[in-house]
Predict the 3D structure of the following.
Amino acid sequence: MKEKIIKIIKKLALLSIISVFILGFAALSTYGDNKKIQYLENLNYDVVAYENGDIKITETWDIRVRNTNTLFKTFDLNPYKYSQITDVEVKEIKNNNSKKFTRIYEEMYHVTQDSYYALKNRKGEFEIAWGIGMDNKSGRKKYQISYIVKDALTDYEDCQELYWQFLAQGENNVSAKKVTGTITLPKDVKNLDNLKVWGHGQLNGEINKINAHQVQFKLNDLRAFARLEIRIVTQEDMFNISAPNKIKNYNGMPSILREENRWADEANEQSKVFTTTRIILLAIYITIMFIYAIKIFKINKYKNKEQYKVEKIEYFRDIPREKDATPAEAAYLYKFNKSRLDTATVQQDAVAATILDLCLKRKITLRTDENAAYIKIVAEAEDLKKDEKQIYDLLKNVGGKEEFEVGELNEYANREYNRYSTKINNLVNGARESLYNQKLIDKSEEKQYRKYNNSKGKSKLLLNTYIVAILTQIYACIPIFKTAIDVTFGAYTVPTIIKLILIFLPFVCELLYYYKIQDSVKNKIAVLTEDGAIEQEQWKGLVRYITNFSFFDEKVIPDLIIWEKYLVFATALGKADRVIEQMKAFYPEVFVKEYWENEETSNLYPVLNFSVNPIYHMHVNSYNDNPITYLGSGIDRAYHTSVTEIAKHSSSSRWRRRRWLLRRRRRPEVAGRPEWEADN
């Protein structure tokens, strides 16, 4: 129990390190390389409307800054909206005390610390900018900017309107955690229904009439480049507007209502789309959970499934399916253990044995000398099974001449890597398909086992990912990480992820349970059919027979003509060395040159023919290594050469495509503006 607790603690410590690393990466991306930070913790607007149609706006910026010299805001100079901005003041608020900044009258890229200017800039905008002197510093500051907007209200025959844009769409590049504002009218309206208010911007905004002469608005998590506008309309005269261009001699209320209704409809449509999307996602979520519940129910069939029993065969002398089995099938079935074998697992023995088998079938000849082994095509590929045909075609294409040395396989694999790899893969795939067709391997059960066999890894990955997500949100409360996340991704990020963690908790628990059941029943899945399991046991018995042949009485020694087939399948099963040792022991005359110079003997044993016999040459020419081993190593080297070349060329191709995509990436368009309004 103690060891288990220690193991859990170590695991949590590792996952905590991963979580902190993730947050640290976010912090470095925010704070690293002298990056500038400008993030508003709070932004408050205090607006006072005067009877003459002017408004005084006081903005309070509670802002986090880093590596920033100057803060600024701009106004579009539009005479139809207002005439001018006057009485600008900038202050720094610190410990409930304020310090006025000194006004200067020239535009500066880096404004002198504790100074500000308010004038028309080079772009033709009215700009207020002030120096904060935080070039190589970071901290949380509070500034107050106040100014009077002259002639901000409009007078219609039937109403009076204040329509002010606090933040323009696409211009404000600073996000804010919380935005609040209060607008105070010069006097009370007699009837509250005569006061209409609207807000334009993010859908999460709220605007309310708190009394007969005050309106408040607020929104959380203001995104950078978002829009913020407030429109107040009173149907009672409370302003004495004198500016000629702000007096309209027609009714404005109908057009204002039409405009606001249109924007409200657009906002409602966006809200409906959002709501509909949430409902659809919820339906999909519930459906997926239901599907996995059915899967959990179906898995139980394996718990009560009856298993066949195959008796172990200690020794098996005969070659299973002698007239039909191919070396690749033998190698595949012998090494098969429920999971599908990949090509690399069996290719060396299967290819070497298939070459010997083609020699046995008189399709090719194989000869050796002191330094090399040579292959020659001598007949057409008639009556060959699919897997054998792949190797025949490969050998035919390698040399492009009557006879070639085995080492040329590697050169061919280096030159024609895709073609070589395809042929070898087709050999293994062909053997696998043949075993499917002969009902020796159950393809559907194999697929099910592969899925179930990965369940423990999937379960660990899912659980660890979920724990990392939880730990990340816990550590995100640490100030340095919290600020980094808020600045980089927005203040809404952590709450949103926490909601997602809670929403997906039931599904994660269901999925973990699903994987647990899969892991518990995987060993009850019989991938081999009963016939397949019997034949696999026969191949294993044959290997034991070949390996322990020296224990048998000489009366049961097979005829030499059977040993040539043993040699083929022993090569497929990785026991060629043992067969050759036994042949030397029981048939020493085979390794005498004069024995093979007899024409009758030469024709009787095609694989062991003097002109093509690797075993004979191993003995007569004093080979240090088994020539079949030499053949197998050449095949293995060629296969890995092809795999290496494929990987190298594929990697190069992906890199080129990636660079092409990077050159053509476009920045997405800025979204349109949603609207929000009060109950009027």
